[in-house]
Amino acid sequence: MVEFTVWDIFRNLLQAGRWTVALSLIAFIGGGIVGMALLIVRLTPSVWAHRLVGGYVQLFQGTPLLMQLFLAYFGIALLGINTSPWVAAAIALTLYTSAFLTEIWRGCVASIPKGQWEAAQSLALNFGEQLRFVVLPQATRIAIPPTVGFLVQVIKGTALASVIGFVELTKAGSMISNATFKPFLVYSCVALLYFALCYPISFYAKTLERRYQVRS
User: Fold this and answer.
1) Packing angle between helix 85-110 and helix 136-157, nearest 10 degrees?
2) Cα torsion at 59, 60, 62, 68 (round to 10°)?
3) At what angle do helices 6-43 and 136-157 cross, to 10 degrees?
4) pLDDT band for position 1 (50/70/90)?
5) What's the rounded Cα separation, in Å, for the pair 214 and 53?
6) Which of 12, 63, 124, 173 might form a disulfide with 190, Cβ 3.0–4.6 angstroms?
7) Residues sharing a CB contact under 8 Å with residue 137, sequence separation 6 or more, in sequence order
8) Residue of 151, 154, 144, 141 whose CA lies nearest to 202
9) 196: which residues sit within 8 A by CB, 6+ positions away?
10) How far apart are CA 5 and CA 9, in angstroms?
11) What sign has the CA pseudo-torsion 187, 189, 195, 197?
12) What 8-state DSSP symbol labels residue 154?
């Protein structure tokens, strides 16, 4: 049996960690784009738009991410489309992220005083101009800390992609554990790498929150 050193284990996990980072960034950026589109739709006066976006948010917030990954992976296959764990995981996590970011940003927009909307209307600005020049610049300042903080949840959520065969940090840890028969050592290294990814982001989010609270 080949003997694996701690460095060998850590080096292999680092290589798999690149896929965790890549999947997290794709889900976060893609989810942000979809989430912003859904937010704008939800802010329109249409009642049906509110209900549709609200139902979308409740669907993804009210079901486990694990089930969403299974449905994305096997559901796409049922349509006769060959898909890979990478594509299925990216789609599921993007939709999951978009639902949460939509709700986070909606709350930030709702925190803007009604007088700001009325002031924008008094300047004869249309709906798009009200959002662009008055509401969204103020809401963005409020939204930055929780948005950055949510990235931590996205990174941790990528661990569930291992159940559909996507080889990220957790899946790699399982494979290395089976090969080395050192589960405690391997998963300790996995936990350390997740901590190294998540803690700086959490710390930065708290710093941003304190900074914006002081300025306000």
Assistant:
1) 150
2) 110
3) 140
4) very low
5) 34
6) 173
7) none
8) 151
9) none
10) 6
11) negative
12) H
Shortest CA distance to 3 belongs to which of 209, 173, 181? 181
Q: How far is it, in rounded angstroms, from Cα 181 to Cα 2?
A: 11
Token readout for 200 is 């700086």
Residue spans of alpha helices (H) in the chain:
6-43, 47-61, 65-78, 85-110, 114-122, 127-130, 136-157, 169-180, 183-215
Place of tokens 């989810």: 31
pTM attached to this predicted model: 0.90
Model pLDDT for residues 196-216, shown as the tens digit of each residue: 999 999 999 888 878 776 555
- Under the banding of pLDDT at 50, 70 and 90, the label for residue 135 is confident
* Tens digits of residue pLDDT in 31-60: 999 999 999 999 888 899 999 999 999 999
Structure token pair of residue 44:
């329109």
Question: Residue 142: which of 39, 216, 198 has the closest Cα?
Answer: 216
Instruction: Centre a 10 Å sphere on the Cβ of residue 79 and count the other Cβ atoms it contains.
Output: 7
Measured between its terminal Cα atoms, the distance across the chain in Å is 62
Q: Give yes or no for a contact between 134 and 119, defined as CB atoms under 8 angstroms apart.
A: yes
